[in-house]
Specification:
The protein contains eleven helices and 13 strands. With 341 residues, the chain is an alpha/beta fold. The protein has a domain of 164 residues: 3-Layer(aba) Sandwich (Rossmann fold). The strands form four sheets. Strands 7, 8, 9, 10, 11, 12 and 13 form a seven-stranded mixed sheet that branches.
């Protein structure tokens, strides 16, 4: 009986032991899970914790003072937040707390109305004053300048001794220098009107009225101009006058006529009077050409135009009449048939 009881008891103890082991295993597993959870939270808390540098300063009484960066940064952030929240009151508090030695006293900037600096002299700049819409410079004698300019103008326009001349029965012209410009185209020669020979005789008579104080020049032209001796005004000496017959006697009449270039060339000599001797043949001067020549001639030179023809005058409004009127000269017509009777 006893053996049976012991065997039954053994069979009952085995399950209890196993049950105890199982309970402990379960408890260990639960404890391990709890340990893992608490370890993660502590590691996270440590990771979020700020890290700083602690400075230690040794005091006089062998005590150390510790300075934590984190505390200083938090203090700075708090002060910045407070200053931004209360801007105007903070400025007044800061201004009140600044030492008087650092406060600048009020001062005035220099202006243009202040007195000049000591030792610096001022310079008066010239100012223009307007009188009768004309500026005047101070310190300059304007009347003297005007008088000098007028004297120069009179000297430039001085003509010297003057005389009166007329040619081929024309109106007399007054001046001190004369240019006799003769058309030598074919129609003016021996095969035409024969004016060149008549001009040689007429000039010999007219030039006697000039003396050495006067100046003259004789030019002939067709498509180009040729002058006595050289292209300039010559003194009216006996020697220069004696050159005229030979000059005209050696110039044959031929070719076409260009009135405009010949007149412009004669005007470049700046004489007082030009006697233009021509039959007015083609090509004639257009209206704009007459205006251009008159503009060059005025106000110094008067152009007297003598037109030659055979028979009565056919056109009283020729370009020669307009040219003479535009320059203050006279226009005349010569009928060679009546002249030679």
């Amino acid at each position: 009986m006893r053996d049976d009881f012991q065997l039954e008891t053994r069979h009952k103890l085995v399950p209890a032991w196993l049950l105890s082991v199982a309970v402990h295993v379960v408890l260990l597993i639960c404890i391990s899970f709890l340990a893992v959870g608490t370890g993660d939270s502590s590691s996270q808390e440590e990771a979020a914790r700020p890290v700083g540098i602690v400075l230690a300063r040794k005091a006089a009484e062998a005590e150390r003072e510790y300075f934590d960066e984190s505390s200083e940064e938090e203090a700075d952030q708090d002060s910045q937040t407070q200053s931004s929240a209360n801007n105007d009151p903070a400025q007044s508090q800061i201004a009140a707390s600044v030492p008087e030695s650092l406060v600048l006293s009020e001062f005035a900037l220099p202006s243009s109305t202040n007195d000049p600096l000591v030792g610096v002299t001022t310079i008066d700049t010239p100012k223009l004053t307007v009188s009768n819409s004309r500026p005047k410079l101070p310190g300059i004698d304007e009347s003297a300048i005007i008088a000098d300019a007028q004297a120069k103008l009179l000297a430039a326009n001085a003509r010297g001794p003057t005389t009166e001349l007329g040619i081929f029965g024309s109106e007399t012209a007054v001046g001190g220098s004369f240019v006799f410009l003769i058309d030598r185209s074919q129609s003016m020669g021996g095969g035409g009107l024969g004016v060149l020979k008549d001009a040689e005789v007429e000039l010999a008579r007219v030039l006697k009225g000039l003396d050495s104080k006067h100046r003259f020049q004789v030019g002939v032209y067709h498509h180009k101009s040729v002058y006595l001796q050289r292209r300039e005004l010559l003194p009216a000496t006996d020697a220069n006058k004696a050159l005229v017959p030979d000059f005209l006697g050696t110039k044959a009449a031929f070719g076409s006529t260009l009135h405009g270039p010949a007149l412009i060339s004669a005007l470049s000599l700046e004489p007082d009077v030009i006697f233009l001797l021509t039959d007015g043949g083609e090509p004639t001067l257009k209206v704009h050409e007459v205006r251009g020549i008159a503009k060059l001639a005025m106000p110094r030179t008067a152009i007297h135009c003598i037109q030659f023809g055979s028979g009565p005058l056919q056109d009283s409004g020729s370009f020669l009449a307009r040219l003479a009127a535009a320059t203050g000269g006279e226009y005349g017509y010569v009928d060679v048939n009546q002249r030679r009777k």
